[in-house]
Every structure is written in C-alpha cells, then in structure tokens.
Amino acid sequence: MPELPEIETTKRFFEPILCQRQIVKMTAVRPEIFAYPAAEIFGERVQAQQIQSLGRRGKYLLISLADGATLILHLRMTGRLLYCPSATPLMPHTHCIFHLDDGNELRFSDTRRFGRLWLLAANEEDTFSGAQKLGPEPFDAVFTANHLQQKLGQRRATIKSALLDQSNLAGLGNIYADEVLFQTGIHPQCPTGELQEEQWLALATAIQEILSQAIEDNQSRMQDYLAGSSGKYNDNQRLNVYGREKLECKSCGAEIQRIQVAGRSSFFCPACQC
DNA sequence: TTTACTGTTCACCA
DNA sequence: GTGGTGAACAGTAA
C-alpha cells in the first residue's frame, strides 16, 4: 500500500508532532509484530526515551531516540500510524501503542499484520530490517540514469521487476512503477538489456517527477488520513494507468490492459508502451 | 463461497 | 549466478 511518497508524507506529518516528545511507556498489544528485539525488551528500551527526529529510507520510517537508538517501522501493505488523545477508542487491529508525555498516543494499527518494527541500539549494525540492502534513494545525487543503466543494462529481467527490486532503487512499489512505465512509454515486460540510453534517461526523470508529484498531492489528502478522520488515503483519480483496466488510455484512447509481471498486477497501454 | 490484494522473503525450478 | 513463479504472512472486500 504505502510506497515512498506515502512514507515521506507520513514522516513530514509526524515530524513536528513527535519531535521532543517523550515515550512514557509502550504497550505491545500483539508481540509478533516486533521483529527485533522481542516486544518486552523493545518496550523497556524505548521507555522514557525522547524522540529526536524522524527520517525515511525507501519505504522504512526511522525514528531516532535520545540514546542514539533508532526505531524502524515498515508499514508493508496495510499498516498505519495514528496520533490521538489516550481516551480515543482503539481502532481495530491496533497492535502497538506508544504513550507520550503530552497525554496523546502514537498507535500502530495494521489490518493484515504484515508491518514490522525493529529497534537498533546506537551503533548497532542493521542486519535485521532489510534496510541495509536498499539501493539509492530516488532523490539522492547518486541516483541517475547512468546508475540505472550500469546496474541493469546487461540484465535479462523485465523492467517492471527491476523497478520493484528495492536493491536497485529504494521506494518504488507496484502502483508508481506502473505509472513510471506508462509515462516513459515502456512495456512492463521489456527486458532491461534492451532499453536504450534515452529510455534510461526518461526513466530516471519520470521516477523523480512522479514520486515528487505524489508527495505533493499527498500533503493535503493524507492529513485527514493520518489524523484518523479518514479511513483511506488512496485517490486513484490522479493515477494515469494503475487500476484502470479496460478504461481508455488518457493519452491515446486505447484500452488499458492488465497482465501479471513479477507476480504482480501490471496495468499498461498496449498502444503507448512497447 | 471464492478470489484478489498496493510488500517482502523464501523455496524451487529452468 | 540470474530470473521467473508461487507460497506464505492475515484479513477484508468485491
């Protein structure tokens, strides 16, 4: 569900709210979502810690604590955070509650329970969360068309699976991968080895454009979602191809098709993308 | 009742 | 080693 833009928006929304707040106590409603360390130790280590800053790496949200520890959160498919007064009734599927020193709570809820939390002590190497395997951030200086071409230009994998592989590039998921391929006119099943230099250039540009546009669009719509007043944040209106099977291509009018690539639904325009 | 699902990891096979 | 497929995780909704 959440890809890079949604995590970035979450980070920006919670940053001013959570910074300098102290975690008075943590309640682990469902211990199995704590990937490392176990829930009980996790709770002991975050207790009485002040939140220093928020960060993001790919689809991971990072919360830095005063003792140098980092709380890492991955929302996976259906995870969400909620900040609310402690008297607010619990949403269904609330698995973890951070009680804060301002009388509010930061709650993690996740219908499908795929989301995970990790806590790394200061200077502890992250061999747990998978974040160390991530490729460059799309907005990092090292992320360029040349980077993509060097890394993927000699491979046989389909471009769709390559874009979803977080070790090539961090943060792209199924929805925005389809949007990027639509904007660049590249078929999702095109082998990466067949792409021309100008296509790599177009891809790198489209990735940055589409992700930054999505972050901008999210700013307003996600406020309600994150504040708990809206159950959904998806707005498929702004998507050009994802989820539009059998509808007209917004560019040429042809019928959008849906196929499976890399085990995922992939939407594309057979006329615009080859 | 059945099927699909926006993330990730792993086993298995070509 | 590369890369595709399917399963698993668990719950909901169409």
Notes on the protein architecture:
The protein contains 6 helices and 11 strands. The protein is of the alpha+beta class. A hairpin with a 2-residue loop joins strand 3 and strand 4 (about 60-65). Helix 1 (about 5-20) crosses helix 6, helix 3 crosses helix 6 and helix 5 (about 175-185) crosses helix 6. The protein starts with a helix and ends in a 6-residue tail after the last strand. The structure holds a DNA duplex (14 and 14 nucleotides).
Topology:
Elements: H1 4-18, E1 23-28, E2 34-36, H2 39-46, E3 51-57, E4 60-65, E5 70-74, E6 79-85, E7 94-100, E8 104-110, E9 116-120, H3 145-152, H4 159-164, H5 174-184, H6 197-226, E10 257-261, E11 264-268
Parallel strand pairs: 2-9
Antiparallel strand pairs: 1-7, 3-4, 4-5, 5-9, 6-8, 7-8, 10-11
Helix pairs in contact: 1-6, 3-6, 5-6
The structure holds a DNA duplex (14 and 14 nucleotides).
Quick overview:
The protein has helices at residues 4-18, 39-46, 145-152, 159-164, 174-184, 197-226; strands at residues 23-28, 34-36, 51-57, 60-65, 70-74, 79-85, 94-100, 104-110, 116-120, 257-261, 264-268.
